[in-house]
Amino acid sequence: MPTYEYQCARGHLTEKFRRMDDRHPKAVKCDSCGRRAARIFSATAVRDDFPEHYNWSFGCVVKNRAHHRQLQQAHGVQDWEPVKEGPLTSKLRKEGAI
To answer: For residue 34, which of 64, 14, 61, 55 has the smallest C-alpha distance?
Structure first.
């Protein structure tokens, strides 16, 4: 089963296992504050051994995790951070959830 990430209006992240055929899951509550959380798109998990592979974005072979970080810095790529104020927050405010 895949793991999906959810984020509440306060910015708390919650992970849930869902069946792939569960197209319309019931409302998910935040584990931290109990408010409704919406599913967000996030990066896929990377194995710890980080095998050597060709990265099309960087146009070269990435040898290990340290090399990957160097390439990210060289190309101006930053690590993903959750949005604290965005469309989800304004939607939940309109609905009176926050």
So the answer is: 14
Tell me how many domains the chain contains. 2
| Both structure tokens of 25 | 């899951």
Helices (H), 1-98: 65-74, 87-94
Number of C-alpha atoms within 13 angstroms, CB side, residue 49?
3
Average pLDDT across each block of 10 residues of the chain; the chain has 98 residues. List them in order: 82 83 76 89 63 76 81 76 65 74
3-state secondary structure of 85: coil
Beta bridge partners of 5: 15, 40
Report if residue 4 sits inside a domain: yes
Which secondary structure element, helix H or strand E, spans residue 40, and what is its range?
Answer: strand 36-40
Q: Give the number of other CB atoms < 10 A from CB of residue 8.
A: 24
> Could you tell me if residue 34 is inside a domain?
yes
**22, amino acid identity:** D
Single pTM value for the model: 0.42
